[in-house]
Amino acid sequence: MTSARLPKIPGEALDPPPKVFDAAQQVLDERHAAAGVLFRAWHRFVFARAPLLTAGTTYYLFLSLISLVAFGYGLVALIGADQLSVWLTDALNSAFPGLVGDEALSPEDLRSYGTTASIGGLLVMGLAGTSSVNAASQSLHILYGAPKDPRNIALRRTRMFGQLILLGLLILLSFIPSVLISTLAEPLRDTLGVDASVNPSLILVVTLCIALTLNFVVLWLLLSRHGGIRPSKRAIRIGAGAGAVVIETVKYSTAGIIAWSLDKPQYGAFAVPITVMLVLYLLSMSLYASAALTAAVALKERDELHEAAGRRGEAEAPGGSD
Asked: Do residues 38 and 297 lie in contact, with contact meaning Cβ atoms separated by under 8 Å?
């Protein structure tokens, strides 16, 4: 029999016995279903040691970041799309202000490196970036209570490489919806013959809706394909919807977080790396919180099905109520 976790070793227990939350869970379920789901999500989040999983994922994301950036510029240079290179720079500046620029990573140097890099070199950089997807996948397996992915490492990395390209594109687009709007709006106005300025409030609303939609799609793909178990669509929809809002809030806070860090003279040259890691940590934490919520909704649905089946069994049993 396979197990989702390692068996306990023999020996004397040093810690106090674990707390039992069954009574509290039952009370919350009876009083308010939403509170019961949130309690389940919190309990799974804590029990799975999600903060520790987040720290590990952040480490791999940070190590993979330069490889992914170089791979992105190299891929753009390979297909000769200069406009995509500009969009990539804008997205990186939006996601991590201060990471790309004259005093940090130079877009010109990255483009030059991408132009001279061989296809094999780009593939190596891309495969190096899959370590972040692998860390997220293993963490989601733990949060869902699924056993480790049994695929061999070559097959798993190849599968994640394709997912990385798709997810990376969607994530980059989610950071620059205003650029997309301005790029698409101009030819649309010319086609329709409209020469009127667009209300800035409308632009803000449309930008926010596009960003939330892209966040939702990214979370849907991660929650439905990388946890070893595919929950119900309703559970994924609730988890991805809540996570999309939280992630967008983190995005809007990024500029403030980085500005706060850059104002700390004690950080010195480490200011930008520290804040990049902090932002990656918050984004990873948001993913695992949405995964815990997805799992809680799926467990609630299972319990409701069992209760309904039990009531039907009592009703159908001899002597049961009609």
From this structure: no
